[in-house]
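// run 5 | inverse folding | seed 20
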C-alpha cells in the first residue's frame, strides 16, 4: 500500500480529511449495522439536541506504525469502556464496546495510507464521537444518535514539539464537584475555550486547574492529566473530577513494572508542587509533554523539563506503543 504524499515530520495537531470514516445510527431503540463511508459532512435538523444542548461525547486515540512495519492501536478497549461511561452519564445509548473496537480497526484499515510511517514523529489520531441527532426543544435527551469515527494524521499537540511548557494556575474552573469532569463530554471543552484563548494571549501554553470546591488541590489541564516526579517517586492527582486518562493509567504501570519507581496516586496540594523536581502533561494528544514552569499568580515554580525520569517514562511508553519494547498483555491491538 502506498502512503499519501505528506510531509509527515512537519505535521501539527490539525484536521486533515482522510478517505473513510465509520458511521452508525441509533433509531427506534437500536443501533443499525454501521459501516464505512467517504462522506465527511453531516446533515441534521437545526434543532438537533447536540446543537441546542450539547449532547455529545467523544474519545481520542491513536494508530501507530511499529518498528517492524505493523499498524497498531493502543488499548482501544479502554477507550470503548470510557466512552460507554460518558454515554451513560450523558443519557446517550452505549455503543457496544466490542463493536467500538471493531469499528476502530475498520476505520484504521480503510485509512492505512494515512498512518504515518515509523520514525516520522507523526501518528494517526482517531476521534470516535457520538451526538444527539434528532430535534429536541424542551430540555431532554434526544431519541436518535449518530456514532462516528474519523481519522486524521497529526504531529505534536503543543507548538514547537517537545519543548518545556509553561502553565498557569487557572482562576476559572473546568469541572464542578458532582459534575461531568470525569467523562469526556464536549461541554467540558466548550467551557474551557474562553480560558485557553486567554492563557495563550497571556503567553501560557495551558491552564492548570485546581479543584473548584476548595481551590487547594491540583487537578489537570484542559486536555491532559499531570504527573510529577520527586526522586524515584511518581506522583499524580487522584480526583473524582478529572478525566481518567488512559495514558496516565499506563504510565503508572510503566513506572512501577518497567522502571521500578514508587507511585503515589493521591490528592496533591497546590502548596506542595514546588517540592517536585520534574513534571509533565500526559494524554493521547500530549503523549508526555515536559513542563518547564508553573506560574501561580506571579510565583514561578520551575521544573527540569525533559528531566531524566520524564525522559525514561516517555521512552518506555512510546517504545511500547511503537513496538520497540514488549508491551504488557492486551495493550497492543494489531490492525495489520
Ligand atoms: N484530561 C483531559 C481533559 C483530556 O481531554 C484528555 C485527553 O483525552 C486526557 C486527560 C488524557 O486522556 P487519555 O490519556 O486517555 O488520552
Ligand atoms: C486527546 O488527547 O485525545 C484529547 O482528546 C485531548 C484534546 C485536547 C485533543
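// decoded
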Amino acid at each position: 500500500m502506498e502512503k499519501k504524499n505528506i510531509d509527515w515530520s512537519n505535521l501539527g495537531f490539525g484536521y486533515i480529511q482522510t478517505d473513510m470514516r465509520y458511521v452508525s445510527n441509533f433509531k427506534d431503540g437500536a443501533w443499525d449495522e454501521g459501516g464505512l463511508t467517504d462522506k465527511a459532512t453531516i446533515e441534521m435538523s437545526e434543532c438537533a439536541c447536540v446543537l441546542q444542548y450539547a449532547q455529545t461525547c467523544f474519545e481520542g486515540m491513536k494508530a501507530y506504525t511499529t518498528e517492524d512495519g505493523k499498524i497498531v492501536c493502543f488499548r482501544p478497549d479502554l477507550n470503548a469502556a470510557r466512552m460507554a461511561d460518558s454515554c451513560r452519564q450523558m443519557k446517550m445509548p452505549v455503543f457496544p464496546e466490542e463493536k467500538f473496537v471493531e469499528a476502530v480497526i475498520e476505520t484504521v484499515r480503510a485509512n492505512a495510507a494515512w498512518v504515518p510511517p515509523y520514525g516520522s514523529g507523526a501518528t494517526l489520531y482517531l476521534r470516535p464521537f457520538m451526538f444527539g441527532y434528532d430535534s429536541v426543544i424542551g430540555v431532554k435527551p434526544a431519541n436518535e444518535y449518530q456514532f462516528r469515527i474519523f481519522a486524521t494524521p497529526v504531529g505534536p499537540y503543543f507548538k514547537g514539539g517537545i519543548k518545556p511548557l509553561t502553565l498557569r494556575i487557572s482562576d476559572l474552573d473546568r469541572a464542578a464537584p458532582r459534575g461531568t469532569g470525569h467523562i469526556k463530554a464536549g461541554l467540558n471543552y466548550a467551557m474551557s475555550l474562553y480560558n485557553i484563548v486567554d492563557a495563550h494571549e497571556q503567553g501560557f501554553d495551558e491552564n492548570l486547574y485546581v479543584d473548584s470546591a476548595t481551590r487547594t488541590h491540583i487537578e489537570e489541564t484542559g486536555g491532559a492529566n499531570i504527573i510529577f516526579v520527586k526522586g524515584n517517586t511518581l506522583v499524580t492527582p487522584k480526583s473524582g473530577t478529572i478525566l481518567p486518562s488512559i495514558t496516565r493509567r499506563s504510565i503508572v504501570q510503566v513506572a512501577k513494572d518497567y522502571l521500578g519507581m514508587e507511585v503515589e496516586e493521591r490528592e496533591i496540594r497546590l502548596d506542595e508542587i514546588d517540592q517536585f523536581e520534574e513534571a509533565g502533561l500526559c494524554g493521547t494528544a500530549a503523549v508526555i509533554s515536559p513542563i518547564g514552569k508553573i506560574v501561580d499568580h506571579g510565583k514561578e515554580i520551575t521544573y527540569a523539563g525533559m528531566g531524566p525520569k520524564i525522559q525514561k517514562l516517555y521512552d518506555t511508553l512510546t517504545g511500547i506503543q511503537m513496538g520497540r519494547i514488549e508491551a504488557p498483555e492486551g495493550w497492543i491491538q494489531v490492525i495489520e
